[in-house]
Amino acid sequence: MIAQTIQLALAPVFVLVAMGNILNLLSSRLGRVVDRARSLQDRHTATKGPDHDEVVAEIRMIDQRIGLITRAIRLMVISGLMVGFTVAVLFLEELAGLNVQRIAAATFLSAIVLLMWALLLFLRETQISAQQLRIPRMYLELDRDL
Description:
Blueprint (H helix, E strand, L loop, with lengths): L1 H43 L4 H48 L4 H33 L3 H4 L6
């Protein structure tokens, strides 16, 4: 019976591996965004007028991105803990002879909901990032034929 429990626990463990990869991606993005924020903070005091306004606008977007990424990381970590709890409940059921399948199902479902929520925050962050990276139309010189 313990072999069946191990087999049953493998699916959540694979989800944990995927979550670890997503967490790695999120933490890398957070590092790059924080580096950009520091660079902009250095420029903040050195600029005036329209250039200063552009720096402030970008700092505001960076602040949004940092908030979204950190919330996504928090949700991913809580989701990972719920997956771990699911595995523990599955083993507890087997070892203690308890009928806690509904608890295992609820913890796993909670983990998936948290994972999806984190992915939605990540999607929003990438949308803001893409918006931030858009090239201003004046640089495209669309009135010229090339």
